[in-house]
Task: structure prediction
Amino acid sequence: MTELTRARIRDLMGQVLANQGKVLPDDDDADLREIGFRSLDFSELALRVEDETDEELNFDAAGLRRIATVGDVLDFLADLQRP
Amino acid sequence: MSDPTMSDPTTSAPPVSPSTVVLVSGGSRGLGLAIVTDLLDAGLRVAAFARTVTPELAKLAANHPDRSHVGPVDVTDLAAVQAFVRAAEQHLGPIDGLVNNAAVGQDSLHVHTATADLAGIVETNLTAPLQLTRLVVRRMLAQGRRGRIVNITSICGQRGFPGLVAYSATKGGMDAATRSLARELGGRVLVNAVAPGFFASEMSAVLGQTQLDQIVRRTPTGHLTEPDEVLPVVRMLLREQTNINGQVLVVDGAASI
Result:
């Protein structure tokens, strides 16, 4: 399985936001609510990661509720790729 | 035969007697355990199974050895369910009431739910109770008995909640089955469903605090449903003469209205 780097996931996250005319800040502490990154955007990002790794990423919603910042998103998806 | 139902509109079926021997699936904890306790307190004979017999259920059985029959059975294991039903009827007498309560929850967005998990939710929450109902109704009909069935469903069967897609589909499916079964069984077996709102515990644990707070704010009674508030409704459907049949009774403080 191909494992995407944190930097590559950040690129993809930037694409998800750019498609909506939004900008991904450089700061990992940026609040997701302030930048308009919603739960469905997270799903889109996770599915983009799946496309590149060719591996399904399934997870409970409980983990999503703890995600508040850009860094949380990157950490979550990076961790999820590790068996 | 033009009409596949057993209904005969020209004759009225006599009232269905109150249930005296009730089978409860998923009776080891939460609402299921509360239903078992309530029915035993009301003097009924109760058979209950769950994947695991909790100490609470075992204690109940020990306190009512002549009126209870419990065992560890996975509701998706049809052979084990059949064996349990036979043993329960040998112990307690013919089953004339069924509470389909066993279910698994969900806490995942549909696109991120593993296909095996999705199939498991459908198997446990929809296929298994349909199989159990078929089994119990076949025994009732073969022995010329009448009976009552209560399906524990959920407000999720009627309203949408993120993270509960498959769960909601199964509960809505059981609501639909309730109506068709009531028609099909022509008043010989009363079939109803009870659809609780979100409990403060258990299923509510899968919702975020923000979602729970929203539900409480939108609930005219100002609180989430408690299992104790569902018990009288289940007991009524099993015991009282009401002519309620084929209905889904929502117990949610009008949160969904």
